[in-house]
Design a protein that fits this description.
single chain, mainly beta, Immunoglobulin-like, Ferric Hydroxamate Uptake Protein, Chain A, domain 1, 5 domains, seven-stranded antiparallel sheet, five-stranded mixed sheet, 4 helices, 6% helix, elongated
């Protein structure tokens, strides 16, 4: 954060003014203005801060809600001090107004603050990002930026794969960069999403939210999320103020939908009636004795064989997301931040080609991921104006991630030999011969020569591993009505 402290009457810059920044009532940094009245405080996480300026003979001034962005400086920390003519302690409080255009940055896109996020009807991060101009959503989530795929998402500076299911209450800021991308996001093709999490609060804060679509549509969508933050260990300073030494943040969500389609619908689907589905499963093939042709029975379905239903069967999804963080403050200049998350997803998938008549065999997918991140920052500040080196910052961070996913048959799992298995075939064979001429005893003669084997009887025993496929085979080999083509 940068700013200039001036005299409210003369407009002159004021040197040697003490400036601190607070967040949630807890001091996050401080500095003293130089001879030109300028100051700089770093590093600060993205979020909203209060700037407090004090100087002898002037009223204490506080500027609230100053935004610090995830990239670049925040020049909104300028404060004007009013001279004080009384001994009464007065505080002049002003509010920070977010500028329409940000100066000092080359990025194009949009910055969404936590205040804006709280006002949105969107529940997920992907849905929030999709409100940015130039972002097109795919199945209800943020998909591409200006038609380009390959959007990269960062959470507290660490790259993430796939969607992010953070509860809205845990987010301090979302920055979507569509152009002028900084070099550290070089792998981004279409755009970059930079998410900053809220730090642990200095006092206990919590939130519990439950949402359902049950009365309004047929999807059977349910979502519950929670957020809890506060101090784990406090210590009183010399002036009697309690400061959080160890703070925590814990948030999570669980979303379940009986219909895997992410878009809510106000109409209905057409699905095959149960009696027709049972008939089709038992008789997948139809034989025409007049022509000797074999047809798929599904080719003879008509509109009156279908009915309207509210949701497609065997297409549910469930996701669990847990996220937490610890802030350990060894001193005003030394802090360790530890963040971790766990994601678990499972459900039944569907290919549109088989969704109508073969949804009982929809695949099952499941997966989980785990990530832990640690960030240590040490500041070596100097208050001496003659010091050649100031604001030395040492930062070290690292992350470990592990993920697992699989898609398989609900019935077969990892038993590979059951996939496509329809049963056993016991075949009876007989010799086959062909007329040929060969020399026998010096004389050319016509003889029958053995040239192979012919299956003349096949006894097929179906398997219950894949009853649908086995029924096709059973009709061709065992159904009496197909005997003329065997």
């Amino acid at each position: 954060m940068t700013g200039t402290i001036t005299d409210s009457k003369t407009g002159e810059p004021m040197p040697f003014v003490n400036v601190i920044v607070e967040q949630g009532g807890q001091q996050k940094g401080g500095a003293q203005t130089d001879l030109d009245g300028n100051y700089q405080i770093k590093p600060l996480n993205a979020g909203s801060y209060d700037v407090v300026a004090t100087f002898v003979g002037y009223k204490k001034a506080m500027k609230t809600g100053v935004r610090v962005t995830a990239t670049g400086y925040s020049p909104g920390g300028s404060v004007a001090l009013e001279p004080s003519s009384t001994a009464i302690d007065e505080v002049v409080i002003t509010g920070y107004v977010v500028p329409l255009l940000e100066s000092g940055t080359a990025e194009s896109g949009k910055r969404i603050t936590n205040e804006d996020i709280d006002k949105m009807a969107a529940n997920t991060v992907d849905a929030i990002i999709a409100t940015v101009g130039g972002i097109s959503d795919v199945d209800g989530g943020a998909g591409t930026a200006r038609g380009e795929s390959g959007m990269v998402t960062y959470v507290n500076g660490v790259a993430k794969k796939g969607s992010v299911n953070l509860p809205k209450a845990a987010i301090a800021e979302i920055q979507v960069i569509l152009g002028g991308t900084p070099a550290r996001y070089g792998e981004s093709i279409g755009g970059t999403t930079n998410i900053t999490l809220r730090p642990p609060e200095n006092k206990f804060t919590g939130m519990l939210r439950y949402q359902t679509s049950e009365p309004l549509d047929t999807r059977g969508y349910h979502r519950v999320e929670f957020y809890l933050s506060g101090p784990m260990y406090k210590k009183k300073t010399s002036d009697g103020i309690e400061k959080s030494i160890i703070g925590f943040r814990l948030s999570g969500s669980n979303g379940y939908s009986q219909d895997g389609n992410s878009r809510p619908k106000d109409n209905y689907y057409y699905m095959l009636k149960e009696n027709k589905q049972n008939f089709l499963d038992a008789n997948p093939l139809t034989f025409d004795p007049s022509t000797g042709a074999v047809y798929n029975t599904a080719s003879f379905l008509r509109l009156d064989d279908f009915e309207q239903v509210g949701r497609k069967p065997n297409m549910w999804s469930n996701s669990v997301y847990l996220e937490g963080g610890l802030d350990i403050r060894f001193s005003d200049n030394s802090i360790l931040q530890i963040n971790g998350e766990y994601v678990n997803r499972m459900g039944r998938d569907a290919a549109y080609g088989s969704m109508l008549l073969n949804n009982a065999n929809n695949s099952e997918s499941k997966g989980n991921s785990f990530q832990i991140m640690a960030d240590f920052t040490q500041k070596f500040s100097s208050t001496s104006e003659t010091s050649k080196i100031k604001n030395i910052i040492f930062n070290m961070n690292g992350a470990y991630e592990r993920s697992f996913s699989e898609t398989q048959s609900k019935n077969h799992g990892d038993d590979l030999f059951k996939y496509g298995y329809v049963g056993t075939f016991n075949t009876l064979k007989r010799n086959t011969y062909a007329l040929t001429r060969m020399e026998i005893g010096g004389v050319m003669q016509d003889v029958m020569e053995h040239n192979g084997w012919l299956d003349y009887q096949v006894d097929y025993t179906p398997s219950d591993a894949n009853p649908g496929l086995a029924r096709y085979t059973w009709q061709l080999y065992n159904d009496p009505s197909f005997s003329s083509i065997r």
